[in-house]
Amino acid sequence: MSRLDRAQFVRSMAHRGLHDATTGVIENTGPAFEAALRLGVGIECDLRPAAGGWPIVFHDETLERLVDGAGPVATLSPEQLARLRYKGQDTPILSFSDFLDLVGGRVPLLVEIKSEWAPPDVDFLGLIASFAKAYRGPLALMSFDPGVMTAVAELAPKIPRGIVSGIYPATGAWDGRLTPARKDRLSHLLESGPAKPDFFAYNVKNLPTAVTRYVREVQNIPLFTWTVRSLEDWATAKDHADAAIFEGRQPE
After folding, report:
1. What is the pLDDT of residues 53-109, one digit of tens each?
2. Are 113 and 47 in contact (CB under 8 A)?
3. Cα–Cα–Cα angle for 64, 65, 66, rounded to 5 degrees
4. What is the chain's percent helix, strand, coil content, to nearest 5?
5. How many domains are there within the chain?
6. Which residues constitute the domain of residue 38?
7. Cys staple from 195: which of 60, 97, 149, 151, with CB 3.0 to 4.6 Å?
8. Domain assignment present for 90
9. In this structure, what is the dihedral angle of CA atoms 153, 155, 156, 161, given to the nearest 10 degrees?
């Protein structure tokens, strides 16, 4: 039986919080999460490790795009990262612990664990599992990397978990880390079995597919879809998924 409570989780989720660069609200930051809380929508966010495996809320492997800093996130200590600020504002990088304190169980969370397709960092995943198990609110963990979610299944077996996917291009994305054959397996969710996922999240631009129809209609596993931005995307989400991970405004 799925650990994911449909009544709590099957609803719109703000992708990296309710952010809007045109108004200075940056993804995966406190202001973006507070905006989602005010609207009452669920929140999707990203985790990656600082030095020593401490989980922080950040999408990119390196700092340059969003932060007044440079280099890989994983080379800096939590203390060093805490002193940095997002470009043009006095907004700090949140730790996973800070993020959970901010939300405080008010809306459901989909927490994506970032992976560079290397062997799972057991310190990083262990800390995530500890925080997730202690949290008093609806929270689910997910990753593109089935190996990460298989490890999470051992570390936090009662926490809902999912696989994020889509159609991986044969060339371009993750070249050098994923072979074309593995990209094909991941696209068709063929490595998902050991993780025993409670849900899937699939690229809205690729829906529908035979495998997403199978998991949703035959296996009765909830299907989220990302990243929903346009009215066309919302229509696809309505027809071929259970809930949208979205940016911008929801349609009336």
Report:
1. 999 999 999 999 999 999 999 999 999 999 999 999 999 999 999 999 999 999 999
2. yes
3. 95
4. 35, 20, 40
5. 1
6. 6-47+105-246
7. 149
8. no
9. -30
